[in-house]
What does this fold into?
Amino acid sequence: MTDQLTTPLRVESNDAGLAELVKAWLVESRMPLPPEVQLSLIVTDQVPKPDDPRPSFFQAGVEVRAGEPLDWVHLQWQLAPAMARIDAGGPTATIFLSRDAFADAELFVRTFLMIVVIFLGRRAGRFHLHAGTAVDPSGRGWLLTGNTGSGKSTTVALLASRGWQIGTDDVAFLTDSNRRAAVLGIRVPIALRPGGRALLAHHSGKGMPLTRRGKTGFFAEELGGRWLASVEPELLLFAELGNGRTRLTPMEPTEVMRVLMQSSPWVLFETTAAQEHLDLLARLARQARCFRAQLAADLFEAPGALQDFLP
It folds into this structure.
């Protein structure tokens, strides 16, 4: 496991303020992209529309065109004029955008730019996972995934408050690590809804208001933990909220792969590196003990948190 990753700084723009904004986000979040990544950001009053006949799909307000018969990816933002083209042969992207597109910096980087980064990562062997990661006091790596609202972020915040090391609470990147699957995180605040914050009231201070999302953000260190760049999961939990008591139930291998693909759906969107992506998901499923986790309020009373519920 490492605490530092190379962050790409090859960001060019005809607007110096925008270039600095993007560089700062990449550095501050410890975004795990290699130095060959190149971003060209062109601010313009006339954002071009791609001449692209491929069917599209939508992700977080972004219209995506990818796959055959063309080799590159086109992204269009639905919230403000912005379009990106990601090259087929390497991690290079050109983004055309209006000034309105980056007037709300948090929204721009969290939605449109993040999806650009996800496609760039695929070209560098780093595959997006909607998951949180942590390392317990005995050194075991944990990965938590599940649908939005399944309790991942609140659980990750709880683990930080118990002194666990935290990789991420939401955006993660799967990659190869000497024939094992590793998960790279980004250093951003753990985003808690009011209910989750209330459960951690005796641990947390004011935090960082995430006004647009109606949440409050806390870095792992503010809760008593520490950020960690890379985790090799030994335990996988597929989380859902439940009533009564917290329970971890072992999962069958076929169910594990199905749920992992739901947590990493980009493998289905584009042929680039699809086999490598699938192989890493399978490796992750093999190397870890996998459980379906029903999370309940008694988790907050357990001295060892999640590890107290392992069968």
